[in-house]
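[job 0412] stage=fold_complex status=start
inputs:
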Amino acid sequence: MRTSIATVCLSGTLEDKLRACAAAGFDGVEIFEQDLVVSPSTPEQIRDLAQELGLTLDLYQPFRDFEGVEEDVLADNLRRAEAKFRLMNRLGIDTMLVCSNVATATIGDDAVAAAQLRRMGETAARYGVRLAYEALAWGRYVSDFEHAWRIVELADHPNVGTCLDSFHILSRRWNPEAIEKIPAEKIFFVQLADAPELSMDVLSWSRHYRVFPGEGAFDLVTFMGHLVRSGYNGPVSLEIFNDVFRQAAEERTAVDAMRSLIRLAEQTSIHLQETGAGETAMELSTLPGVGEPLGFNFAEVKAGDPETIRTLLYQLGFTCQGTHRSKAVELWTQNGARVIINSQNARGLEPGISAIGLDVPDALAAASRALQLKATAVPRRSQANEEVLQAVAAPDGTEIFLCEAESGGPGWIREFGRGAPVPAAGPITAVDHVNLSQPWQHFDEAVLFYESTLGLTPRPSVEVPSPMGLVRSQVMRSSDGAVRMALNIAPMVFDGSGYPQHVAFACSDLVALARTAVARGLQFLPVPGNYYEDLDARFGLDPEFLTVLKDLNLLYDRDADGEFLHFYTSTVGNVFFEVVERRPSYEGYGAPNAPVRLAAQYLANG
Amino acid sequence: MRTSIATVCLSGTLEDKLRACAAAGFDGVEIFEQDLVVSPSTPEQIRDLAQELGLTLDLYQPFRDFEGVEEDVLADNLRRAEAKFRLMNRLGIDTMLVCSNVATATIGDDAVAAAQLRRMGETAARYGVRLAYEALAWGRYVSDFEHAWRIVELADHPNVGTCLDSFHILSRRWNPEAIEKIPAEKIFFVQLADAPELSMDVLSWSRHYRVFPGEGAFDLVTFMGHLVRSGYNGPVSLEIFNDVFRQAAEERTAVDAMRSLIRLAEQTSIHLQETGAGETAMELSTLPGVGEPLGFNFAEVKAGDPETIRTLLYQLGFTCQGTHRSKAVELWTQNGARVIINSQNARGLEPGISAIGLDVPDALAAASRALQLKATAVPRRSQANEEVLQAVAAPDGTEIFLCEAESGGPGWIREFGRGAPVPAAGPITAVDHVNLSQPWQHFDEAVLFYESTLGLTPRPSVEVPSPMGLVRSQVMRSSDGAVRMALNIAPMVFDGSGYPQHVAFACSDLVALARTAVARGLQFLPVPGNYYEDLDARFGLDPEFLTVLKDLNLLYDRDADGEFLHFYTSTVGNVFFEVVERRPSYEGYGAPNAPVRLAAQYLANG
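[job 0412] stage=fold_complex status=done
writing structure:
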């Protein structure tokens, strides 16, 4: 699959954009007209830079408001088009995107549109230019890709073909099956965009909210299946108008974009096998397939001064397994819950979550897959006699370690203390979930990262009010719930840093654990009395049980699947801990209680 | 008019919110349930604080999903309601908002809903509580305020009335005229919200995009007219769910909110007079009416080192009129364009726009009006023998001077130089417009500020792409165009500061001025060659004219009303200048050229 991307997807100058696309591994780019118009570089300089970077220039776009006009307007449009054909010759681009007329069309007659496109095609032919006519979802007379194709058929000129854009097709719910009826050689170009399910006018939706494939709600795999079956073998190009991507660092956005196409190619390939498609013209690269993660291997907190974290873990019933034999790193465990406190090169650093270890069926395959999906490898820090661990950086900088699942616990534990784990029983059984705040510019990237590299599935997102604004929370989950990551966008005031993150531990007896913790002096996050009155009004709880909850600062929720008890520790630096008990199969995270936590944390830091 | 506001409109703790509401001058507040639930203060403490602050607690809200349910659910709902009535007694609140059921209703029968509300009313009566039943726009069976009123009529209980919410009525385009048919004593509460015209699902629109009256597109004046004519005389309360207000400083948001109600009361009063309403129960305060501003009196640039600004003004043909007789302030003029360079207490300060002077028909009345609209007065710095100028601070901190329009120019000019203006002729005639960037948290506030205090009218806003993201631009304009202010929201990376602002001068012969400026060594903002090629493709310009534009770095636009020529200087600190020529009645600001400017400025700051 030839990969391409429109320069409008990215921030920066045209040169910045080209460099970012090349670095991310794209084969080519579409030049968005305005990016060239505002550039001080000549067309020849842009052509040369692309060549130097190994990028093909696949499309010049967009040419607007051409067809369906009166003769005098047409003459001016042809003059305007010819100026652009000359420019395209200088750029070395042979395909132009022609959008269906939205503004100046006055004649809603296919024969007229076709004849006018044919005249444009005749002029284009003199410059060696091909025209890819596309139905915009809000075109004046032409908004359906099949309609655009009928006009192209009528135009009947070798230099006039069609462009298919998944947004314009799927946003209007046109059936993409008809793509297979278009002769592949008349599909001159294909643009892909995904979008979240939003009920708003299609123009605003298109101009502000498009996202890369896999980050939205469109079924692009089925779309791609039809495209491949049509015999199309040209560029598959991303054209994403997104207010956030426009503000984000272009190098990162380009990598996010490339990852989305690699993942889509894999999914398309699987889809085609499943639907029994035979030989196809388009080659679709595949990736090492790996199973879902099986559980949390460990969570790592980095801290200049480990003492406050040690105290919290002790109060929660964890046992120290000793320090690492070669690093300033110590291990605390309780049954299957493992926390590493890392003070290596951390002088003066406030405590914060620095790494997560996940058990995977095949660590080498998982790491290879992540790297092929453009994840950044984390330099290994192990010595010759130590366990070799695979790790990649998540979009927020957290290190994700991919650990071989081993019966009897991870081998690396032997590198701590006396090499044999000290028994550490207690009601905490494992890590239940990890909650990481994400920079607002990279939230969609994070969702795609965890989905594509680790096979976690996004759950419906929720918005939680806090005294500083709404917090958006998106859970990514393995199918059996053994791995759950909650990704948050914090209010703007944090600008992606300093917002506390947390590790939540699963517990078989929360009340008993809380009592032990009280005895050991744990600072619970205080829960207001009004909360318990409201809880009682909502659930009509047993008064004794309510008193227990209130005395211990425990939070409570209930749904059709069961009950949920949980509490939070106070925050140390940028990290706090939560302990949860699911009775027995409550699936949520106590979302109704999240505003209580956020308000209490606001007050505590106030 | 009794003013009230829901605590959910504001950020911070419940105490922060109450203090902000009191400081802004509200008579009362609605307690949003969740704000109380997350508060560590007891209901009694909240009641006492409100009393101490002189605020009435007007409404407890919302109570959800009560009516239209099976008998067993009703029993639980009544238990839940009674717990809240007890709580309201402790708070000293006698009215509860009951929203039409969205989640648990299974019976779409008005008689059932009415009977159930009646039973709720009977319980409420025992606690001295009144129920204000409101149709949510997305209610399961009840979404129309007239329908809610019919159910209240059927319920026929003195403690059951209705609540009217302008959002739920106007978002669904229900006709508010029917308000007049509801007996005033059965309207227990009124909530007001405005909203921009957005084509999205009504729930998302309501939860994220509500704004204060006058900041959106709803006709709240007509709505208020019906309400006043109904005889209603209770609180008029703001309930605004807005993602941005939730993140903004609560003191400012509360002032913005209060300003919106003061302005709405004035407009309603005028509307009632115009429509011939007689005596009404509700008293509507009025404000000193003032005419629109007649023009720009001056623009002030504050700079630690005035030299770079002096040079720019000299290059643009301005003449220095000398320094102020008592301050480190100098005046530069060219015909009716006056620029003050202020270096008073400005050591080390980068140049930036600090003040704008506007000619108004009655400066004292205008200042009085602005202060009654909660504008902050700027401390006067004049001495006994100097002109006394009225000034208020705009939401972005710019000082707005309200100057008495005088034939023969402003009197304060005599305080500069030798007291008599030096002739300063040239093609620049006046200030055409001023472009100020606004903090993203206070954009709606700024629009309302300029509309309500100065009578400027918002024009349709535009979004302009830049290499760092979209810039939203909103022009506020006097009806004859003599005063035009463009308010911009800069990309997030600026976070409201450091984004360049500018003063644009009107000019009768831009080409001549540009030539003079070239001769005087002006650094023009460079315009790329690609721009001129595109301009030619779009407009088919005379080649000689195109060469003139290109040689002088002039930008060009054309529409049905005429032509627009303009150029920009390079940026000094946070300010630059633009010169524009309108041929003859072009009304815009060269929006198609804005991306060229933004890209060139991005490169220049590289």
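[job 0412] summary: The longest strand of chain B covers residues 428-438.
[job 0412] exit 0
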